[in-house]
Design a protein that fits this description.
Blueprint (H helix, E strand, L loop, with lengths): L2 E5 L3 H12 L3 E6 L10 E4 L1 H10 L2 H5 L7 E6 L4 E5 L1 H7 L4 E4 H10 L6 E3 L3 E4 L4 E4 L2 E4 L2 E4 L7 H6 L5 E12 L7 E6 L3 E7 L5 E8 L8 H7 L7 H7 L6 E7 L7 E2 L2 E3 L2 H4 L8 H15 L5 H27 L4 H13 L2 H12 L4
Parallel strand pairs: 1-2, 1-11, 2-7, 4-13, 11-18
Antiparallel strand pairs: 3-6, 4-5, 8-9, 9-10, 12-15, 12-16, 13-14, 14-15, 17-18
Length: 365
């Protein structure tokens, strides 16, 4: 029986473990955190990710978290629509996206694994191309090492040396909140050098995020965020007022430059370890799920890791570049450019929006 060690117990790591176990591999997941959890954050799962989850056998469970009757689009900070998404056509063409709490998705993936596969509280210190993993509990070896340990990946060093993440120029605050009124819209509001996004969850809560231009590692507080977005349209102030300072997440936004390879020897990188991208297309986790399914499909085949690299690297680079461009447009701050952007959004037909999404969403296993 082939053996695999997965470094990292996030979405990509757990998905890779599920996919490999489903192909008959003996799998061990090493996660440095004492428990697998991700409070305060949601994730958008588009049709490409849902097809990957179908391949893992959990697609229907995830879809049960979706909401059937919602609207979507982009507005300006006064609440005027810049772009409306034809949700019915989107659903018919690609399938409806699902917004789910990250912790719930992690629970679903973990439940699909045999007992004892996931080992928490294990810090990986080094990985070799020969398949050896040095960690806080000793040394382990496997036929395949999956580097799913995020943007600051230890496994990546063995594949392509030190690679410094790039700061995108903006920072993000994310929260899961309860509000009195039901929310049936998901989408974003674009201002000048700032954005706000919201999405209803199946349990009645709302996932929301605030993004704004800032120096790298700048200090800030939730009170500052409330002041910054205080005069934006309803229900933004209500959502920020409901956010709990103890559970809100604050992270500067980074991506990775293009790597020369996702594989070396017995190591394969996936998710943020391979192609960390800005969140502007909602595709970071989706691409990690795709990675996991493709890797499990190819890993047993001759030259399988090289084929994985050839299949995944161009696609993830295309999506990462597109996401960075969307972020640059969304974060425009000069008034003339913002006015031009908003006019262009108003004039762009829905059919053009759907065509632009096809190259990302029309993926199959």
């Amino acid at each position: 029986m082939s053996t695999a060690i997965v470094v990292g117990g996030g979405i990509g790591g757990l998905a890779a473990a599920v996919a490999l176990a489903g192909k008959g591999w003996s799998v061990q997941v090493l996660e440095r955190a004492p428990e697998i959890a991700d409070v305060g954050s949601g994730i958008s799962l588009w049709s490409n990710a849902l097809r990957a989850l179908d391949a893992l056998g959990v697609g229907d469970t995830v879809r049960a978290q979706g909401l059937a009757e919602v609207s979507a689009g982009i507005r300006d900070d006064r609440g005027r629509w810049l772009s409306r998404t034809d949700v019915a056509t989107l659903r018919a063409r690609f399938g409806a996206p699902v917004v789910i709490h990250r912790a719930r998705l992690l629970d679903i993936l973990r439940a699909a694994l045999p007992e004892g596969v996931v080992r928490t509280g294990i810090s990986v210190r080094d990985v070799t191309t020969g398949g050896t993993v040095v960690h806080s509990s000793g040394t382990s070896s496997a036929d395949l090492v999956v580097g799913a340990d995020g943007i600051h990946s230890v496994a990546r060093r063995a594949v392509c040396g030190e690679v410094a993440p790039r700061y995108a120029g903006y920072t993000a605050w994310r929260a899961i909140v309860d509000i009195d009124e039901p929310l049936t819209e998901f989408g974003e509001t674009w201002g000048r050098g700032a954005r706000f996004g919201m999405a209803p969850l199946a349990d009645g809560r709302v996932y929301c995020f605030a993004v704004y231009d800032a120096p790298e590692n700048a200090t800030g507080s939730l009170a500052d965020v409330r002041d910054r977005f205080g005069d934006w349209h309803h229900p933004i102030s209500a959502l920020l007022a409901a956010a709990d300072p103890d559970t809100v997440l604050h992270n500067d936004i980074y991506d990775l430059p293009a790597l020369p390879s996702f594989t070396a020897g017995r190591i394969a990188l996936l998710g943020d370890a391979a192609h960390a991208m800005t969140p502007n297309l909602g595709q970071g986790g989706c691409q990690a799920l795709e990675d996991a399914v493709v890797l499990a499909r190819l890993a047993d085949e001759p030259d399988g890791l090289a084929r994985y690299d050839r299949e995944r690297r161009p696609r993830t680079r295309m999506i990462g570049d597109r996401s960075a461009r969307v972020g640059a447009i969304a974060q425009l701050s000069a008034r003339p450019l913002v006015a031009l952007r908003n006019t262009a959004l108003r004039l762009t037909p829905t059919s053009a929006q759907l065509r632009s999404m096809a190259k990302v969403l029309d993926w199959s296993c």
